Amino acid sequence: MLVYLQRFLSTMRAVQGALIVGSSIQIILGFSQIWAICSRFFSPLGMVPVITLVGFGLFDRGFPMVGTCVEIGIPMLILFVVFSQYLKNFQTRQVPILERFALLITTTVIWAYAHLLTASGAYKHRPDVTQHSCRTDRANLISSAPWIKIPYPLEWGAPTFDAGHSFGMMAAVLVSLVESTGAFKAASRLASATPPPAHVLSRGIGWQGIGILLNGLFGTLTGSTVSVENVGLLGSNRVGSRRVIQVSAGFMIFFAMLGKFGALFASIPFPIFAAIYCVLFGLVASVGLSFLQFTNMNSMRNLFITGVALFLGLSIPEYFREYTIRALHGPAHTKAGWFNDFLNTIFYSSPTVALIIAVFLDNTLDYKDSAKDRGMPWWAKFRTFKADSRNEEFYSLPFNLNRFFPPS
């Protein structure tokens, strides 16, 4: 037992150190406005494959996971679609209850249904895979969780720093940066806001880096990135208020300290979430495709860039995954382990591959004579904060923080 404990602590400290080092990438690129400069090479055409593949990112966690427990996953998928789309105009006191709270209502109903199946012994003699996917009492999560546990920095000890781990985490942070950029763009469209100006986009990346730094200090084992499903939920319930996010963050902090409540939510069978992914991730992918309306898709150049970036964005990561399964290591396999981790991580990400290919082709292939075809006349007017009066409403920081981070 002591050996396992020491191994756990060693792993946690190594991950903490890697997260702390990796966070510097987003903090520097964000707050120095370097990412804002990079974003000037983006166009609506270049963003189409990126945002679309952000939405397709967990397609293997969608219906394949629903199928692991069809008696829960299928009703959840059908009920969520019916409530959020077919019955969305149902109102109580002028409030579209089913559109706003479709996710909460359907999750609660199907979760209770799953608990009834578990309590009635429906899964008592089923295979282990089925029990793991369907049961609400797996692993005694609630009984083993403490009532109150307050996390604190460096709980697992002083972080350890290793060059190989740090470079691997830097690659993961860069992947997170690209995927978050696509999600930011999708969120602005679903919220009916103006596209985030370069300064705001870069600022968001910087704050995300601060989040990763805190992850490293608190030893969470995971970094911070945009929640793509929440972006999709924005399109489903049509609620784009920042106050909702602030209240939600308060609830998450509260439940994180009350272990029993956190374990209660962790007991929700994953097929319920998988059914939600089928809708919410699909919404994000469709937002990426909606950017095509600002481009000229009669242009063979645009068709070439979009098709190649989408195909290779799916195909190259698939090659890296299959190669790793067969050879037990990635295609990048040199004596420099840090280089292998960095390269393999980058090319595992579909949005990152799509960004590299789409932005390169878009800025090198007949780009001087194709500004209108690329959608640049519409895109360029949103690049600066003061170019549109609505940006003040959408992107000003709360609590008068703009004096520390003035818009540009």
Describe the structure.
Helix 5 (70-86) packs across helix 14 (270-290). 38% of the residues are buried. Helices cover 67% and strands 0% of the residues. The longest helix has 30 residues, at 2-31. The chain is mostly helical and 408 residues long. It has one domain. The chain starts with a helix and ends in a 13-residue tail after the last helix. The radius of gyration is 23 Å and the shape is globular. The chain contains 20 helices and no strands. The protein has helices at residues 2-31, 34-39, 44-55, 63-66, 70-86, 97-119, 128-134, 141-144, 163-190, 198-218, 228-237, 242-257, 259-266, 270-290, 300-327, 337-346, 350-362, 371-374, 376-380, 391-395.
Sum this structure up briefly.
This protein is 67% helix and 0% strand. The chain has 408 residues and is mainly α.
Largest sheet entry: none
Low-pLDDT windows of residues: none
Oligomer: single chain
Q: Please work out how many helical segments DSSP would assign.
A: 20
Number of domains: 1
From N to C, what is the helix and strand string? HHHHHHHHHHHHHHHHHHHH
Q: Into which percentage range does the β-strand content fall?
A: under 5%
First-residue to last-residue Cα separation: 56 Å
Q: Write down the overall geometry.
A: globular
Kindly report the average pLDDT value.
89
Share of helix among residues?
A: 55-70%
Query: How many runs of DSSP E, i.e. beta strands?
Result: 0
